[in-house]
Amino acid sequence: MKKIAIIGLGIIGGSICAALTKAGYAVDGADIDETVVGYALGKGYIRGKAEDISVYDVVFVAAPPRATINILDSYSFKNGAIVCDICGVKQEMERVVYSRARNYRYVGLHPMAGKETSGIASASADLFAMANLVIVLAEHTDEEALNEVKSYAKAMRFGKIVECSAEEHDKKIALTSQLAHVVSNAYVKSPQVADCDGFTGGSFQDMTRIAGVDEDMWTELYFHNRAYLLTELDGLITNLEKYKSALINEDENAFKDALKEGRLIREKIKFKKK
Amino acid sequence: MKKIAIIGLGIIGGSICAALTKAGYAVDGADIDETVVGYALGKGYIRGKAEDISVYDVVFVAAPPRATINILDSYSFKNGAIVCDICGVKQEMERVVYSRARNYRYVGLHPMAGKETSGIASASADLFAMANLVIVLAEHTDEEALNEVKSYAKAMRFGKIVECSAEEHDKKIALTSQLAHVVSNAYVKSPQVADCDGFTGGSFQDMTRIAGVDEDMWTELYFHNRAYLLTELDGLITNLEKYKSALINEDENAFKDALKEGRLIREKIKFKKK
Fold first, then answer.
1. Could you tell me which residues come within 8 angstroms of residue B49 by beta carbon, excluding any fewer than 6 positions away?
2. Of the candidates A210, A252, A269, which has its C-beta nearest B223's C-beta?
3. Measured between CA atoms, how close is B74 to chain A, in angstroms?
4. A222 min Cα distance to partner chain B (Å)
5. B143 pLDDT more than 70
6. Inter-chain contact B219–A194, Cβ cutoff 8 Å?
7. Residue B274: pLDDT band by 50, 70, 90 thresholds?
8. Contacts of B203 (CB under 8 A, 6+ apart)
9. What residues of chain A lie within 8 A of the CB of B210, using their CB?
């Protein structure tokens, strides 16, 4: 049986442990915080503590970007081991991994799942059920490793699995994840926010759910993907300026046209209920 | 038993019918579309069709802003009838209602509930369960009428009920509802949106859920609340520009500070799960 380790037991790493364990795999876990390892053991998410990473056949690195880069670049892995990361930016990861010959086989993953809370207490075996998974491929990607990773993804009950280049991933994620967190974080800065209790419905709750981002981790992610995020942010501001101009000019038709444009686009997006 | 009518059987009007009927009240309904009335009858949401509005003790007007204004201003109501609207803007409604002496008692309502879909097919007896309800009061508001309306609100299973002036309502709603719909509508305009299937998670889904607004109704709402919406939209753009500047200037600390500011505010907002 393959020996599997997860490094970093936050919401994602903890959920990988829980989901694989539930699917019948024996997994070990490591974290810089020993209490987190103890929690994972207590919950039955892991079989044991992963000490020497070089004995594992499969390693999932579920740490923030800089820590992930450090691990991918400097840890000793078993010859031929499959090593996956789950970082939200991929071009930078590939740059590091493929900067020199490696004795391991890298497969980049980005589970499109999460919550507005973090840490192992938010982890669950069901976090990935029906969620999208992006697998990032390069010319260096080992076919056999890829297929094995897909079997783990299925065991974790991911829904749709898409494969793409790191560049495509980073470009799309700038819109689908990164910009959303920026907007939510900005949205709550209205001076009115403190006095809105009782005046909110689902739209406000959706808009502000993910505002409380960990600024250290997200700043890392954003600056590894600066150009693409800037393009999306600039595009959104440009679009918002159009509604603003219509309001200033008291131009109801221009406003209506702007709304209609968005509605027609929205009607074409597949909307998946989770 | 009080005779109750609902004019306008969309998602909100239809849900008022369904909720009050479920609570044991006998309600009649009217709509410009006869098939909608037939649907409501078939579903058991209403007892009968409301023909002559002047026979009803209580009337809920659940129509778009301009239609609501027309109804409040020109329909014949029973002397002393309680008449409520559910419009998303209230200063304009009060201006119309209180422009001259009325033989009815007006109480403005704004149920903070809805869906990304509209029409009676989206209505349900449970739409308001645990939702916030804003009741708008003026010096003219009749105390007895207010208390009776609150009893209906409880029958409809609203959660928190807040009372405020039309001005306060319009100002807060500009942030909690109106701006959210603008942002969502703008968000989907990224050229990348069409190719994002498989790359989305909950944050993208939340951000784009309400993008498909009915541009006619929402433009009416927005332009009845132009100044407050403009303030909120301008404030959001100003805040978004800060992240943009930090990206352009490659200033990670400024970006981190901007995120931290939002996180600290977010942590103070009561977050109600629906």
1. B28, B29, B30, B37, B41
2. A252
3. 25
4. 9
5. yes
6. no
7. very low
8. A114, A176, A177, A180, A181, A184, A209, A210
9. 203, 206
Q: How much is the ipTM here?
A: 0.92
Domain locations in chain A as residue ranges:
4-164, 169-266
What does each C-alpha distance from B189 to A179, A223, B220 come to in angstroms?
13, 23, 22
Q: Please answer yes or no on whether A192 and B183 come within 8 Å at the CB atom.
A: no
Predicted TM-score (pTM) of this structure: 0.92
Amino acid at A47: R
Average pLDDT, chain B: 96
Q: Is B210–A206 a contact, with Cβ atoms under 8 angstroms apart?
A: yes
Number of Cβ within 10 Å of residue B132's Cβ equals 23
CA angle (B161, B166, B172) in 5-degree steps: 70
Provide the token pair at B249.
Answer: 């200037």
CB B166 within 8 A of CB B94: yes
Which CATH superfamily is A4-164 part of? NAD(P)-binding Rossmann-like Domain (3.40.50.720)
Q: In angstroms, rounded to a whole number, what is the distance separating the alpha carbons of residues B156 and A221? A: 45
Q: Do B244 and A252 touch (CB under 8 A)?
A: no
Residues A187, B236: C-beta atoms closer than 8 Å: yes
How confident is residue A274, by pLDDT bands cut at 50, 70 and 90?
A: very low
Domain B169-266 class, CATH top level: mainly alpha
Give A186's contacts in chain B (Cβ within 8 Å). 236, 239-240, 243, 258, 262
How many angstroms away from the CA of A214 is the closest CA of chain B?
8
How many residues does this entry show for chain B? 274
- Determine, for residues B212 and A241 on separate chains, whether the beta-carbon distance falls below 8 Å: no
Cβ <8 Å between A259 and B218: yes
- Amino acid identity of A246? A
Tens of pLDDT, residues A195-233: 999 999 999 999 999 999 999 999 999 999 999 999 999
